[in-house]
Design brief:
7-stranded mixed sheet
């Protein structure tokens, strides 16, 4: 599996021929977002899920002295949920959202968007438990098929069938996954060259921004994954952070962005 440095170098290479960003992003905390909400077209609350069960499996695999890569084991988790450690990381976020995202601050997500992978949805449900599908707040939940990087042969990133996901997470709209994704291609065990993989990733994050621009909701919560968030924050958006927003999200990390689109 590629390391963080390789991911970033490949994205920088692909982005060198990338079209200019169509939106400017300013990073802030939840308090500033509540106070300056009207200054932005969108307020995006972005979260990376906590540690996954596959991470725990890989640690155990290495501790047992196995030489073969962990993902080659027949027991390697496919589309895993979060590990107990990962759940704890995300529960820390739920305390912040309860304090700063409520009727008093008027900073309540009007839309929740999750990736097709189960740990992303699990993280979203734990971060905003009061917005769960079917709750009285009636906030729409959408699984966006492009909110994840192509699996590139890694079982932990294999997408489960939509009917299976609907049974586990009722109330989430999986129509985009059902109608637009060929799981045979998405879950291919074939490895693709890094440049092709990152070009596809950047196309996905660009496509999500276009989709988001046309949504009516202003405050949007997005639960996704490290490399997707890096591409979106650091390359699709024109990010005002000193590092351009290119630092990879840590497990269970939240960032809040005020976004204005080019007129």
């Amino acid at each position: 599996m590629w390391d963080q440095h390789e991911h970033l170098l490949a994205l920088l290479n692909v982005a060198s021929v990338h079209q200019p960003a169509t939106a400017v992003a300013h990073e802030m905390d939840l308090i500033e977002a509540a106070n300056k909400k009207q200054s932005y077209d969108k307020i995006l609350i972005l979260v990376r899920h906590g540690e996954g069960q596959h991470d725990k499996f890989e640690r155990q695999w290495a501790s047992e002295g196995n030489v073969m890569p962990a993902e080659m084991s027949k027991d390697y988790p496919h589309d895993p949920l979060m590990s107990p450690r990962g759940v704890g990381q995300v529960l820390n976020l739920s305390r912040r959202t309860a304090l700063f995202c409520n009727a008093e601050t008027n900073l309540i997500p009007e839309l929740v968007v999750v990736s097709p992978l189960r740990r992303s949805t699990q993280a979203a449900l734990l971060t905003f438990p009061d917005l769960s599908p079917g709750s009285i707040k009636n906030v729409p939940w959408v699984c966006h098929a492009s909110l994840v990087e192509h699996a590139n042969g890694y079982p932990s990133d294999f997408v489960s069938p939509p009917e299976e996901l609907e049974a586990i997470f009722p109330g989430i709209d999986y129509s985009m996954l059902r109608n637009n994704v060929d799981l045979g291609i998405e879950n291919s065990t074939e490895k693709e060259p890094m440049t092709k993989n990152k070009t596809d990733l950047l196309n996905r994050t660009d496509g999500f921004l276009d989709w988001l621009r046309n949504r009516p909701e202003q405050v949007v919560f997005v639960s996704s994954h490290a490399t997707w968030l890096q591409s979106f924050c650091g390359f699709t958006l024109q990010n005002e952070r000193a590092d351009g927003g290119r630092e990879m999200f840590k497990n269970g990390e939240m960032r809040v962005l005020g976004v204005n689109f080019d007129r």
